[in-house]
């Protein structure tokens, strides 16, 4: 009997010990280990450059390393799906943008997800796209580009970073309104396309302005028109395509923010949102991203970011429906 009672006590003590360990782990402050930030594009892309600055700054504020993982391909959908499959513990996040969260699910049949599937954490950065050309390309302005393309129908090749990216959609709208057609050359990301442009192996490319602004400044590429309704605040000297004689009302706005997998705990979301918003308020953050050509948004709540994503889905759905008619 005594042996049996001793055995019961031993089991109870062991159970209590395991429970205590469980409680300790459950109450462990977040983050307790490094965080992976998925960038759904190759290294060197505009979002990747921004992501590396964010990871470095955010890691300092959270007291844990934030590690960039580039998962490019299929207009960002491969990386996006990996982020959606991650455990909802806050240790795998994604720097998503309008292309992989809104456009790709509408255009890429294999995507099979929706931007609203993610847990919205913080809306962060904005930017524009631009048509750039290799240094030796004959045209130097939007009007000259249109004239050259009309005189050489379907002989100008244009690099694109996927059919479901905001810059490609803007470039297609530009061609339709200008009455021209480029020969599309697909790339997995902006970085390899930029290399080919500077090497003279590609005529023109539609790309996020932050990816190529330094090369435009250095004369390694030339801008043939920013694909926005207004001039970019970080490059006010670069004309838009809408300032040409032939094209009006062409524009696309890039935005990016931090998201997580579905069912991310509210306390984790709150911790991340607070740290990110503090980071975005700093003058150093705004200046460093302005140098890349990005605009820092005003800090927002997760609910506001989620609502914004839903509104963008409706806006682009209408644009795509009009284009397909």
UniProtKB/TrEMBL annotation:
InterPro entries: BUG, Bug_dom1. The keyword Protease does not apply. It holds the Pfam family TctC. Keywords: Receptor. It comes from the Bacteria. Belongs to the UPF0065 (bug) family. This is Tripartite-type tricarboxylate transporter receptor subunit TctC. It comes from Variovorax guangxiensis.
């Amino acid at each position: 009997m005594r042996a049996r009672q001793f055995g019961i006590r031993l089991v109870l003590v062991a159970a209590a010990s395991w429970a205590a360990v469980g409680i300790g782990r459950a109450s462990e402050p977040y983050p307790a280990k490094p965080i992976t930030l998925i960038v759904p594009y190759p290294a060197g892309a505009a979002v990747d450059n921004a992501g590396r600055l964010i990871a470095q700054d955010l890691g300092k504020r959270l007291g844990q390393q934030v590690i960039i993982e580039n998962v490019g391909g299929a207009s960002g959908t491969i990386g996006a799906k990996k982020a959606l499959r991650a455990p909802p513990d806050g240790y795998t996040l994604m720097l998503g943008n309008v292309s992989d969260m809104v456009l790709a699910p509408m255009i890429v049949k294999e995507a099979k997800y929706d931007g609203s599937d993610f847990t919205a954490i913080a809306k962060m950065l904005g930017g524009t796209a631009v048509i750039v050309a290799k240094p030796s390309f004959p045209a130097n302005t939007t009007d000259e580009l249109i004239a050259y393309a009309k005189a050489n129908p379907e002989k100008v090749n244009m690099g694109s970073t996927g059919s479901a990216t905001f810059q490609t959609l803007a470039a297609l709208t530009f061609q339709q309104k200008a009455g021209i057609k480029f020969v599309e050359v697909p790339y997995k990301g902006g970085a390899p396309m930029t290399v080919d442009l500077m090497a003279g192996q590609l005529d023109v490319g539609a790309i996020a302005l932050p990816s190529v602004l330094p090369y435009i400044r250095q004369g390694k590429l030339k801008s043939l028109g920013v694909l926005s309704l207004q001039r970019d605040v970080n490059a006010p000297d670069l004309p838009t395509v809408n300032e040409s004689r032939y094209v009006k009302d062409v524009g696309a706005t890039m935005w990016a923010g931090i998201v997580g997998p579905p069912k991310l705990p509210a306390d984790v979301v709150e911790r991340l949102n607070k740290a990110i918003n503090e980071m975005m308020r700093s003058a150093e953050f705004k200046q460093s991203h302005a140098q890349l050509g990005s605009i820092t948004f005003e800090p927002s709540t997760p609910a506001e970011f989620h609502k914004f994503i839903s509104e963008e889905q409706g806006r682009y759905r209408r644009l795509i429906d009009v284009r397909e008619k």
